[in-house]
Structure formats: C-alpha cells, structure tokens
Amino acid sequence: MGAQLRVYKQKIASAQTTKKITKAMELIAASRIQKAMARVRASSPFATAVTRAVSAVATYSDVDHPLTVERENIRRSAVVIFTSDRGLAGAFNSQILREGLELAELLRQQGKEPVFYLVGRKAVGYFQFRRMAAVAEWTGDTDTPHFHTAEEIAASLLDAYTRGGEDGGVDEIHLVYNRFVSMMTQSPEQVRLLPLEVVEADDSASSQVYPLYEFEPDPEVVLDALLPVYIQSRVFNALLQSSAAKHAATQKAMKSASDNADKLITDYTRLRNNARQAEITQQIAEIVGGADALGSGK
To answer: How many helices and strands, by DSSP H and E, does the chain display?
Structure first.
C-alpha cells in the first residue's frame, strides 16, 4: 500500500507541474494573439487598397500583361504551405498540411505538376520525414512575421512565375494557410494568387465598383510596378493570418491541456485517498486481529 501511495503522489505532482507549464503557455499565447490580431487589422487596409488598384488596372485596360493573363497550358503549379515553427497548437499544422496535400492531389488529377514552397519548420520537417521534395523553405519567422520574409517569398514566387513551367518555373500560384476566424476557429484557406483574374473574380463577389484611373506612362508599366507589391501584400497578409491563427490554436490547446491536468489531479487524488483509506483499514484489521489473538491465548 505504501508503494501505491507514493506512485499516486508522484503522478499528482507531475500533473501539477504540467498544469503550471500549460497555464503559463496559455497566458503567453493570449498576450501574443492580441498583438497578432492588431497587426492583421493594420495590414488589411493596405492589402485591400493594393488589390483594388491592381484590379482596376487589370479590368479597365486592354494590356495583355503576362501576370494577368491565364496561360493556355498550365504544366506546373506552385503550392505555398504556411505552417508554424513550433508545435503545441492542436490540429493547426496537421490540418493545413492535409489541405495542401489534397490540393496537390487535385492538381495532379487535372494534369498539373504541383511544386511545393514551405513556410515553417513543421512543414519542412513533415516533407523531410516523408522524403518529399520542396523548391524553397523559409523558417524561423512565423510567430511574429516580418515584412522582409514576405518580400523573399514574393520574389521567389514571382521569379518562378516569370520563368514559366517550360523553363523550370510555375504557371500558377496557390497559397494555403490558416485564416483566423475567431478564438475558437481557425479555417484552412486556399487562394489562387496568380493569374490575377481568378483571385479577383472571387473577391468581386461583393460587387464593388473599382475606381477609374489614368495611367502614366502606360498600363503595362503600372502593372509592372503594382504586381510585385500586390504579391508581397497578399503573402504578408497570409503570414499574419497564419500567425494569429497559430496563437489562437495554442491558447485553445493549452487550455484543454490545463483542464485535462485538473481532471487527472482530481482522479489521482481520489485514488490516493482510496488507497490511504484501504491502508488504514488494513492496519486497523491487523491490530484488531492481533488483539483477538492475544486475548484468546490467555
């Protein structure tokens, strides 16, 4: 009985230590998510303004710009998967990896070759473990994304898209990331970034009227200047959305872990009390039995 009591005490102490850690991580995630949400809100107006400007140029001009015209034969498609550098976030990484692989399978069925661009150590580790190839990787900047990371990703994607599928590049670009919906919900999102018309066809569901522009010197030069900024803003917004969603997922996962630790502590405390009561009962029974034996021996 004594050994059993020691085991229960050790398990209770272990659960209490785990609860302290998960509670601290929950509080840290709660503080970080407010900053991440503020950055998402701050970046949205600029991304919206750039998107409207590019849409207006593409809609009200007759220029066949290579970035705004869908290619006749799409051979290779870039799939950019946004995960986190750290775990302990529930199904945050697994659901976005599953979403990215399902998109890749759909592209294969359409006769296109998917090529992967990975953001976050979890995606890199997943692909390395399964010996799957990736064109480019970016790690170490997912908790608090910086704009230079978005610039690097956008430059790599734009270079691949400019070269085209025939020269080892890509003919279209898809972004796959977790979108922050609420503290309890993080929704996997698929966005076709280029060619431009497909994305803007989806965004035009709100029937908004784009402003009219006068182009100086001409629409092609304007598109050359605007499209890299457009891609950077969309990639940066995806990074910020993924960061906010990750912190929300971490907070939810750590709260669940703390609740489970509380339940374990309650269960082990009950078992410890039962074992202690059984030990006391056994000791009393042994004393009474010894007293009876002494009394009958007189």
So the answer is: 6, 5
Q: Name the residue ranges covered by the structural domains of the chain.
A: 2-23+253-297, 26-248
Q: How far is residue 197 from each of residues 47, 51, 75, 122, 222, measured CA to CA in Å?
A: 17, 11, 19, 32, 17
Report mean pLDDT in 10-residue bins for the chain, 298 residues.
78 89 88 86 83 72 71 88 88 91 92 93 93 91 90 92 85 90 82 66 48 70 82 91 90 89 90 83 80 71
Query: Do 26-248 and 2-23+253-297 have the same topology in CATH?
Result: no
- Name the strand (E) or helix (H) holding 189: strand 186-194
* Secondary structure (H, E, C), 228-288: HHHHHHHHHHHHHHHHHHHHHHHHHHHHHHHHHHHHHHHHHHHHHHHHHHHHHHHHHHHHH
Q: Structurally, what CATH architecture does the domain formed by 2-23+253-297 represent?
A: Orthogonal Bundle (1.10)
The Cα 236–Cα 151 span in angstroms is 8
Predicted TM-score (pTM) of the model is 0.79
Q: Which CATH architecture has domain 26-248?
A: 3-Layer(aba) Sandwich (3.40)
